[in-house]
Specification:
This protein has 2 domains: 85 residues, 3-Layer(aba) Sandwich (Rossmann fold), CATH 3.40.50.10860; 132 residues, Rossmann fold (3-Layer(aba) Sandwich). The chain is an alpha/beta fold and 300 residues long. The protein is 40% helix and 15% strand. Bound molecules: NADPH dihydro-nicotinamide-adenine-dinucleotide phosphate (NDP). NADPH dihydro-nicotinamide-adenine-dinucleotide phosphate binds next to helix 10.
Length: 300
């Protein structure tokens, strides 16, 4: 048996298309242009790539993109003042502060300065609380992307056993909440979990968000399981005698593909969903702030 390989890249392109249609409809009907502000502090090369990609995709979806780049030595008060000015700016519906921040800053303090209604990363304490309480809010992007792909693959998730490996605020915890809200029976695993392979073998859905290359082996999986590999691990070129760094997931894909029913590849699985869901969140945030209905294109 060979698993269905879930094409996150194609699915994310579809989400971005629907976001662009929704943005165009909002402009036509309500004169509303959703706007996303992205703030980068410092010169971290990977962060610059992410921020540029987010800004480009925002503009491509017909939305307004505001990029703020601050030097690494910026005092935290200045960053907070910028976030507060973005909170007050009616043209900005979503605010994202790119992580990691320089060491002299407290990420939680900065993040929680963001107005929860503009928190398109879904990382403020208020957004996390709304998710747990089942209230309307903004859901973190990678977890939303995982849920969209799982639902697209399996349809109704009621009663399925989902194992989430990893309990980070960014991925594991919100993924577990989303699956619980879909009536899955959710088990959460982490670095202190006993008999992870045994737990894994009981799961209909496995979400791996660990950051350890190829940790989940093929013989850990229940035959036919749906495997969502969130991990992004860089294998340096020198280890392979090749000229390019390679990306691998937290799941041993070559083994897992022979056992799973469906699996996301790395790259091209969950990764592209993150920015697509960020754009989607920005349109949703804009609609709620303007008091207009969220366009039907964004359902699901
Ligand atoms: P964190 O480092 O914040 O969390 C990792 C989690 O994995 C922790 O809960 C940790 O447990 C758990 N863990 C570590 N070792 C083991 C182990 N041996 N067995 C079981 N659990 C273990 O990572 P993130 O959640 O931020 O990211 C996880 C992965 O997802 C990374 O590879 C990251 O690059 C990728 N990622 C991808 C995104 C995308 O596709 N767009 C977005 C965000 C992340 P404990 O809590 O006990 O320490």
């Amino acid at each position: 048996m060979t698993a269905q390989i879930i094409d996150g890249k194609a699915f994310a392109a579809g989400v971005r298309e629907r976001v662009a249609l929704a943005a165009a409809a909002l402009k036509d009907k309500h004169g509303l242009t959703p706007g996303l502000a992205v703030v980068l502090v410092g010169e971290d090369a990977a962060s610059q790539v992410y921020v540029n990609s987010k800004a480009k995709q925002t503009a491509e979806a017909g939305m307004a993109s505001f990029k703020h780049e601050l030097p690494a030595e910026t005092p935290q008060e200045d960053l907070i003042a910028l976030v507060q000015s973005l909170n007050a700016d009616p043209a900005v519906h979503g605010i994202l502060v790119q992580m990691p921040l320089p060491d002299h800053m407290n990420e939680a303090v900065v993040v929680n300065t963001i107005d929860p209604d503009k928190d398109v990363d879904g990382l403020t304490a208020i957004s996390a609380g709304r998710l747990v309480l089942g209230q309307e809010g903004l859901v973190p992007c990678t977890p939303r992307g995982v849920l969209m792909l799982v639902k697209d693959t399996l349809g109704d998730l009621t009663g399925l056993h989902a194992l989430v490996i990893g309990r980070s605020i960014l991925v594991g915890k919100p993924v577990a909440q989303l699956l619980l809200a879909e009536n899955c029976t959710v088990t959460m695993a982490h670095s202190r979990t006993k008999d992870l392979p045994g737990l894994c073998r009981q799961a209909d859905i496995v979400v791996a968000a660990v950051g350890r290359e190829r940790m989940v082996k093929g013989d850990w999986l229940k035959p036919g399981a749906t495997v969502m590999d969130v991990g992004i691990n860089r294998i340096p070129a020198s280890e392979r005698g090749e000229g390019k760094t390679r990306l691998v997931g937290d799941v041993d894909f070559d083994e897992a593909v022979k056992v799973a029913g469906a699996i996301t590849p790395v790259p091209g699985g969950i990764g592209p969903m993150t920015v697509a869901c960020l754009l989607r969140n920005t349109v949703i945030a804009a609609c709620r702030q303007a008091g207009v209905p969220v366009p039907a294109e964004l359902d699901g």
